[in-house]
Amino acid sequence: MRASFLRLLSRRLAAAAPGLAGVVVVTFCLMRALPGDPAAYFAGNAATKEAIEQVRVKLGLDKSLPEQFVSYVRDLARANLGQSVTTGQPVRGTVVGDGGRTCLRPRLAAIGPWGARS
Q1: Whose CA is closest to 73, among 12, 65, 54?
Q2: Whole-number Å distance between alpha carbons of 6 and 93
Q3: Fewer CB within 10 Å: N-end or C-end of the chain?
Q4: Which of 85, 90, 87 is closest to 38 using CA atoms?
Q5: CB 109 within 8 A of CB 101
Q6: Residue 80, phi-psi category: left (phi > 0), alpha (psi -120 to 50), beta (remainder)
Q7: Mean pLDDT of the region 27-42
Q8: Predicted TM-score of the model (pTM)
Q9: What gap in Å lies between CA 110 and CA 92, rounded to an integer?
Q10: Contacts with 75 (C-beta within 8 Å, 6 or more apart), sequence order
C-alpha cells in the first residue's frame, strides 16, 4: 500500500514539474517586462540617483538576467517571498499568517455547500 502511494505521488510530482517550471519562467519574465524602473518605484518620487542605485543593488537588479533568475529560483525554493511594498514586512509571514483562512475556504467550498459555511 505504502509503495503504491509513493509511486503515485512521485508520478504526480513528475507530471507537475514541467508546468511548475513554466509558471516560474513566465512569472520571472513578466516581472522583468513591466514598464518603468522598479528601483525608482521602490525608492520613491523624491529619490536621488544614489538612492535609486542603492535600491537597485538591494533588489539585485544590478546583476545580469541569468543571475537574477537563479536568485529568483533560489528564493522561491527557500520560500523567501521578499518584503511587502506597503508594510515592509516579510511576505512569507503574511501568507502563512493570513493565508490559512484564504486557502481553506476554497477547499471547504469544493467539499460542497455544507463545507463552505463558517
Answers
A1: 65
A2: 31
A3: N
A4: 85
A5: no
A6: beta
A7: 88
A8: 0.69
A9: 26
A10: 81, 82
Distance from C-alpha of 25 to C-alpha of 29, rounded to nearest angstrom: 6
Q: What are the residues whose beta carbons fall under 8 Å from the beta carbon of 83, sequence distance 6 or more?
A: 89, 90, 91
69 has a pLDDT exceeding 60: yes
Three-state SS string over the chain comes to CHHHHHHHHHHHHHHHHHHHHHHHHHHHHHHHHCCCCHHHHHHCCCCCHHHHHHHHHHHCCCCCHHHHHHHHHHHHHCCCCCECCCCCCEHHHHHHHHHHHHHHHHHHHHHCCCCCCC
Q: How far apart are CA 27 and CA 33, in angstroms?
A: 10
Spatial contact of 101 and 91, defined as CB atoms under 8 Å apart: no
Residue 97 · residue 106 · CB < 8 Å: no
Q: Scanning the structure block, which residue is given the C-alpha cell 520571472?
A: 28
The distance from CA 112 to its chain's CA centroid, rounded to whole angstroms, is 30
